[in-house]
Design a protein that fits this description.
It is a single chain. By secondary structure, the protein is α+β, with helices and mostly antiparallel strands. The chain contains 5 helices and 6 strands, in the order βββββααβααα. It folds into 2 domains: about 35 residues; about 100 residues. The strands form 2 sheets. Strands 1-2-3 form a 3-stranded antiparallel beta sheet, with no helix packed on it. It has a 3-stranded mixed beta sheet with strand order 5-4-6. The protein starts with 10 loop residues before the first strand and ends in a 5-residue tail after the last helix. Bound molecules: zinc ion (ZN). The site of zinc ion has 8 residues, from loops.
């Protein structure tokens, strides 16, 4: 860490504290040469999410894979690419905002379904039928009925 005033590369930390969410470390530093003080912030950039699959196995979170899954459900549905990107980014941000770097694959599925439901109902049903594997035809019909009625989503 170079001093921003004289570019000297020797500084010492004189005070250290975390911000309220604990994700950012604030450090007061003092230059060993000119004695001027400045503040630095240290932040975790990428938590490296781990996905816990239904069978308990672990897999590192793969944004591309998530996107491909969504693209598959959206095939021939004429959904703009930026909407899909926005969906993927929204899901990733949701996952990153949680306190744990471990995330259940079912939660990811729920988030995708929540978004697709608003985006495109056919894509939603496609994704849901794979992800939720409707136990029987009744629950599938119930889902269809709810969609037709126009489910209010927050
Ligand atoms: Zn200095």
């Amino acid at each position: 860490m170079n001093c921003p005033f004289c570019m000297h590369d020797g500084t010492k930390v004189i005070d250290k504290r975390a911000t309220s969410d604990g994700n950012i470390n604030r450090r007061r530093r003092e230059c060993l040469k000119c004695s001027k003080r400045f503040t630095t912030y240290e932040q975790i950039v990428n938590m490296g999410l781990t996905v816990v699959k239904k069978d308990g196995s672990l897999q590192s979170f793969d944004k591309e894979k998530l996107k491909n899954g969504i693209l598959k459900a959206c095939e021939k549905r004429d959904i703009p690419n930026d909407k899909i990107d926005a969906t993927v980014n929204w899901i990733e941000a949701k996952l990153q905002a949680r306190s744990s770097p471990r995330v259940n694959s079912t939660l990811i599925g729920e988030l995708v379904m929540k978004k697709l439901k608003m985006l495109d109902k056919v894509a939603y049903l496609r994704f849901a039928s794979v992800c939720r594997s409707f136990d029987n035809i009744k629950s599938f019909e119930k889902e269809l009925k709810e969609l037709k009625r126009g489910v209010k989503d927050e």
